[in-house]
Amino acid sequence: MVEIIDVNGTQVHVQGQGEQTIVMLHGWPDTYRLWDPQVEILQSNYRCVRFSLPGYEDGQSRTLYTLEQIVALIDEVVTAVSPNNKVVLMLHDWGCFFGYQFYMRHQDKVEKIIGVDIGDAGSPDHKLSAKVKAFMFTYQMWLATAWKIGGGLGDAMTRKMAKWLHAPGDQKLISASMTYSYYWKWSRTLTGKPLGHLPLDIQCPLLFLYGKNKPGMFHSQPWERKMAAIEGNQVIAFDTRHWVMTEAPDKFNHAITDWLAK
């Protein structure tokens, strides 16, 4: 049974039973539906909470949301669904960035974190080759431009990039309104404006899962070694690309259920 609650205009899907609440955040170009297979296996023991990031549902307006707005929304959701207990965060892609920033500001509300494919991206330790930097800049600027253009052309550009990057989501649900984070990032970066994000410093237990088969990593090796060396943490590399949960679903689900049960 799925309970849908409204949090400041955002539909939040609550499913399952258990004392622990898992708040699941997706990234581009997905929606809350990304986590359907995980909810199926977790709902018997955990309370699973999901919502689509603003602008990611079909028909929503093309709005430039900021880091502060997204973190505030996550805080409102966590407060609404688990006012008295800490939650587990399960994060992917931009959901990692926003979820990590929520954690850095509200560590007292987070018990554990499951981070998928995004770690300390952009940190001083995160070294990339010129080729990888060019690749990341190209696809991200393409998506930033798609948001700026908007309309049918922006949507077509976004869907083309999603297909090229092997995104598993339904193409019909993908639009330029999802790409505001890329425009927000690069419009600030190229004009010298700070993003306002806090350096990543995870002190709670962390399960970090990432795919090895992609053009470049979104985390540094020093950060991976540091996280793996902490008692209670676990780091697992998969023979996948960016969407680990859809490319290796059985191994992914086994890893998260085993770690959560410890």
From TrEMBL:
Domain of life: Bacteria
Residue ranges annotated for the AB hydrolase-1 domain, each copy included: 22-254
InterPro entries in the record: AB_hydrolase_1, AB_hydrolase_fold, AB_hydrolase_sf
PANTHER family per record: HYDROLASE, PUTATIVE (AFU_ORTHOLOGUE AFUA_2G14860)-RELATED (PTHR43798:SF33), MONOACYLGLYCEROL LIPASE (PTHR43798)
This protein's name: AB hydrolase-1 domain-containing protein
Organism of this sequence: Shewanella colwelliana
